[in-house]
Design brief:
heterotrimer, A mainly alpha, B mainly alpha, C alpha/beta, C: alpha/beta, Rossmann fold, globular
């Protein structure tokens, strides 16, 4: 609890510090990290707690983004309409995809979720009406009212922060509720849970839909963050990146998603954006790969797990 | 569409399928026997193509370079297995995904550092550069016939290996029940390394054979890797027969889809819509195929495990 | 001698802080965002090398100001491109931007660039959306309007008397635009317009259909790895004997030749430049490029080189005042007529795109046995961007 409050305090102070240092670019970077933290945390719900290895999470992330983008292109820029719409559409997509995919297990589940995301990707790539491969540039960020101008980097950051904290709180409640315990029991031993009498399929589907809905909100935010949506958000590489974040941070650990997002994005930014690496900065994927590999081999529980071990050692 | 064209497209589908089979066979073996998701399989394929291009450039002969490239790739595979991958067998699938994903990043950059960022040249043997005339007047690229030949040869050899040899028997035992195989005294470590070496050699063969008709470039593995996964999921994990059937299915469905769907839509819809709808749908056809197969047979067509 | 760790970290921190501080005046900082990794990286590398060569020959100064080029790699990913653009403009505070190869990245980052009132000089992608209705004084192209090569190819096919043309492109907006450009100037019979999957590997199905349709020419817009795959497979199938392959110049230049080789001999392509153009600026460019990089330049390299020359001339004429929109824009517009570039004489249209000649080249061997792209004729003279008509700027 104390660690969480410390993190929150740091997150609140960070943009002010950057503003003071006249480094507005990093305020935007911070907002991006927060958005990906939300997306990764939503994946962790199905992946870590639910034991469902979904390789198609980008579908919900991208769906939320595209709903926001398309509505903006059609003139509907109010956040009060666009963002709930993104959540609703993503949840619906999760319902449909989950209903079909959850009939399979193991690697087959992985592949079928991947297939659905790829299908969405190819459809959006060829849709000239909404940009296709070029993507869609939004006229600007969503309008919130209350005199809040989301174009202002500080305002944007704090709005994102509020939403991310809210979603993490929601996830926390879910995970520690009866529902959450049943989900984890299903992950541990599905046959036993079924024998006890739980409607396993329904629980898994509900979990899948909640996770998709939150990813949809993250998608709406990412569309606003860059004022741009492109089919790349739906590609399997995007799903893979989210999975990497969760695994890196610690699967099934509450802070796994956010920590993974923070570490991976910061790592990429520092290595690729550094001035002192010069032309070698172009090869930033090499040190990132090595570091990831090292973490896998020597910190099997992810970073969150390693931290926990150190504390309790 | 004429019968001749239809036949030619069918042949194309078979050829594409056999191309995928070369990769899928190794992937399904590793996954089936060691229960390991190896995303770096595509990277071994890329390394195979690059090694082949270099060796062919040095020796000046495609046929001399081919076995050398195969052996070289197998050695790289063994080195990887002994140093890193061996430690992942006991871990869960997600850890394997993360680790092999990291390997992809590393492999891509290492290849780029050694060979540069630009695609490099790998041409087939001069003797197979042009088309041959098949019965029916079909002009078919002779190199593609060579691919069909090699694919079928590999399928036959693997079948013999798995069903008629001792090693094959151990492989099948390990695929269907690893604990029992260990309990029966099989040296699992050596077996795994051997299986991985075979898988890597197949990657090398695929890379070397496909290099002349596809671009040899950094990241070439990722594109084809997804297709290979689709194949083994359809075919059933751990089964060579499944990989063979799955690969042919995917190859045929994809090729015929690309050939027939646009024509089909052109008859139903106005050209603007048809030209949009046709290619989009044919792109997702193999995923629809996979979803359909899994709906009726959630374990794939020929699952190795009971 | 290695400094102790703490000292090194402190030095790094100090250097980083200095880098963060506002840069000195009397210096030019250029943001170079391009595709430098991944399968399509050859293009970005060529543009970068051409640009750097011009910079080197000018003694590291453009417009008389010591120039720093900050290089960033968009990995052909519009989202990454957007973030990098923000970093270049907000953190690194560049004065000018250049470098983008691909239209999807260009379209994604353009709003950020335009809003920040930074001038962008295009060494490649010049999308119709930015050159037409959406034209802006902050955009200047030193390459060619996106449809230019395709229109030139259409003209060429028309002038050679090809009666039946088959067209192929990937199934995305750039592909459709490319074929639209070709069809604008080609008046013969279009046998079929085929759209293939993005990053497709195997074209055997499409090639079979092409063979059955019996066109006399085939125009293919397949950038990057797709083009390499396609050309290899096209020639292997024997179709190159009966069907004349015509490509836009950027699909048939030295980078593709290095990856494909002999099978490409005999194909035609259209381009705003050829390595054997008969002018002093070009001879110097080709000679210096070969000496520095040990390879023949592509049209991309020429574009990067010319971009640097244009920037040099414009900054000099504006006396370093790149923040002054009117002054700098006027200098940019006049620059092509004031400096000699390898592609010959050209000038700028009111929407910031070049009015220039387009040549036809054929892939053949030179007297040293190397495979090159020889100019065989001019297919369009002083051609203006079709979409300039929609631009309301003066």
């Amino acid at each position: 609890m104390k660690a969480a409050l410390a993190l929150l305090a740091a997150a609140c102070v960070f943009p002010l510090a950057m503003h003071g240092l006249d480094q507005h670019f990093y305020i935007g970077f911070g907002a991006r990290v927060l958005i990906y933290a939300m997306a990764a945390a939503s994946l962790n719900l199905v992946l870590g707690y639910g034991g469902m290895v979904s390789f198609g999470h980008a579908a919900f992330f991208g769906a939320g983004a595209y709903v926001t983008g398309i509505l903006a292109a059609e003139g509907l820029r109010s956040a009060w309409i666009a963002w709930p719409a993104a959540v609703a559409v993503a949840a619906l997509a999760a319902l449909v995809i989950g209903a079909i995919s959850l009939r399979t297990r193991g690697v087959y589940f992985i592949m079928i979720t991947l297939a659905f995301a790829q299908m969405m990707y190819y459809v959006f790539v060829s849709l000239k009406a909404y940009g296709g491969d070029d993507g869609l540039s939004l006229p600007g960020r969503s309008t919130l009212g209350f005199g809040l101008e989301l174009k202002n980097p500080l305002t944007w950051y704090y709005v994102v922060l509020v939403l991310v904290v809210a979603s993490l709180y929601l996830l926390h409640r879910i995970v520690h509720s009866r529902f959450g315990r049943v989900i984890q029991a299903i992950r541990e031993n599905e046959t036993r849970a079924e024998a006890i009498g739980y409607p396993v399929y329904r629980y898994k589907l509900a979990c899948f839909v909640v996770s998709g809905a939150i990813a949809g909100l993250a998608g709406a935010l990412i569309a606003n963050q860059s004022s741009y949506v492109g089919p790349g958000l739906l590609h399997w590489v995007q799903s893979g990146t989210l999975m990497i974040m969760v695994i890196l941070g610690g699967v099934g650990r509450f802070w796994g998603g956010p920590i993974g997002a923070l570490v991976l994005l910061t790592l990429e930014e520092t290595i690729s954006g550094s001035d002192w690496l010069g032309p070698y900065a172009l090869h930033w994927q090499l040190p990132v790969g090595v570091i990831l590999l090292a973490i896998v081999l020597y910190a099997p529980q992810g970073i969150a797990g390693a931290i926990r071990k150190r504390r309790h050692a | 569409m004429s019968t001749i064209l239809l036949l030619e497209q069918t042949l194309n589908g078979v050829q594409f399928g056999l191309m995928l089979f070369l990769l899928a066979a190794g992937l399904t073996l590793v996954f089936g026997i060691m229960d390991m998701i190896n995303l770096a399989h595509g990277s071994l394929y890329m390394i195979g193509a690059y090694l082949m291009a270099s060796i062919a450039g040095v020796t000046g002969s495609f046929w001399v370079a081919l076995p050398l490239a195969l052996v070289a790739t197998a050695l790289v595979g063994v080195a990887l297995e002994v140093t890193i991958l061996r430690r992942l067998y006991e871990r869960d699938h997600m850890t394997q995904v993360l680790a092999t994903f990291a390997l992809i990043l590393i492999a891509n950059e290492v290849v780029r550092l050694i060979w540069g960022s630009q695609p490099i040249m790998l041409n087939g043997p001069a003797g197979l550069a042009g088309p041959v005339e098949l019965p029916g007047g079909i002009q078919y690229a002779s190199y593609r016939l060579a691919i069909i030949g090699v694919g079928l040869l590999v399928a036959v050899l693997l079948y013999l290996l798995v069903t008629k040899t001792r090693v094959g028997m151990l492989v099948r035992a390990g695929a269907s029940n690893r604990e029992m195989a260990v309990a029966m005294g099989v040296d699992i470590r050596r077996l795994f390394t051997a299986v991985f070496a075979i898988g890597a050699a197949l990657c090398g063969l695929a890379g070397a054979m496909l290099g002349p008709i596809l671009a040899v470039q950094v990241g070439m593995g990722e594109n084809i890797l997804i297709l290979a996964f689709v194949v083994i999921v359809i075919g059933g994990i751990g089964s060579i027969r499944g990989a063979f059937v799955g690969a042919l299915l995917v190859g045929l469905v994809d090729t015929m889809g690309r050939a027939l769907l646009p024509l089909f839509f052109a008859t139903l819809f106005p050209p603007m819509v048809a030209s949009n709808l046709g290619p989009s749908l044919s792109a997702i056809l193999i995923y629809v195929l996979m979803a359909t197969v899994l709906f009726f047979r959630p374990q794939g067509l020929f699952p190795a495990r009971g | 001698m290695k400094l102790p760790m703490k000292l090194r970290l402190a030095a790094f921190a100090a250097a980083a802080t200095v880098a963060f501080a506002a840069q000195a005046a009397n210096e030019l900082k250029i943001g170079f965002l391009s595709t430098l990794s991944g399968p399509a990286s050859a293009l970005g590398i060529e543009v970068r090398d051409g640009f750097n060569l011009a910079l080197k020959l000018a003694g590291g100064k453009l417009g008389g100001l010591p120039t720093e080029v900050v290089i960033a790699d968009d990995q052909l990913n519009p989202e990454v491109g957007k973030q990098l653009t923000e970093r270049l403009i907000k953190r690194d505070r560049v004065n000018l931007m250049t470098g983008i190869i691909f239209s999807n990245v260009m379209l994604a980052v353009w709003p950020t660039i335009e809003e920040s009132k930074t001038f962008y000089i295009a060494p490649n992608s010049t999308p119709t959306r930015i050159s037409g209705e959406g034209c802006s004084p902050y955009f200047f192209s030193a390459s060619w309007p996106n449809e230019g090569h395709h229109e030139a190819a259409g003209h060429f096919a028309q002038s050679k008397g090809y009666k039946n043309a088959y067209l192929i492109a990937p199934n995305y907006p750039a592909g459709k635009d490319a074929l639209t450009g070709f069809k604008r100037s080609y008046k013969g019979n279009i046998v079929n317009e085929m759209y293939t999957k993005v990053n497709q590997l195997d074209y055997s199905a499409e090639l079979a259909q092409i063979r059955a349709a019996k066109p006399d020419t085939l125009y293919a817009f397949l950038p990057g790895g797709m083009g390499i795959n396609f050309i290899k497979q096209f020639v292997a199938s024997g179709l190159s004997k009966d069907i004349q392959l015509v490509l836009p110049g950027f699909s048939a230049d030295q980078d593709v030749i290095r990856a494909v080789g002999e099978p490409m001999l005999g194909l035609f392509d259209t381009s705003q430049w050829a390595y054997d153009l008969d002018n002093d600026a070009n001879r110097k460019f080709v000679a210096e490029f070969e000496k520095t990089y040990n390879r023949l330049p592509t049209l991309y390299a020429e574009q990067g080189y010319t971009t640097a020359l244009i920037i040099d001339q414009a900054v000099k004429a504006a006396k370093g005042r790149v923040e002054d929109m009117k002054t700098f824009r006027a200098s940019l517009m006049r620059a092509p007529t004031q400096v000699k570039t390898p592609r010959g004489d050209w000038k700028a249209a009111h929407n910031g795109t070049p009015i220039q000649d387009y040549y036809v080249r054929v892939v053949s061997k030179d007297d040293k046995g190397r495979i090159v792209n020889k100019k065989i004729g001019t297919v369009m003279n002083a051609h203006t961007d079709f979409w300039a008509k929609d631009c309301k700027l003066k």
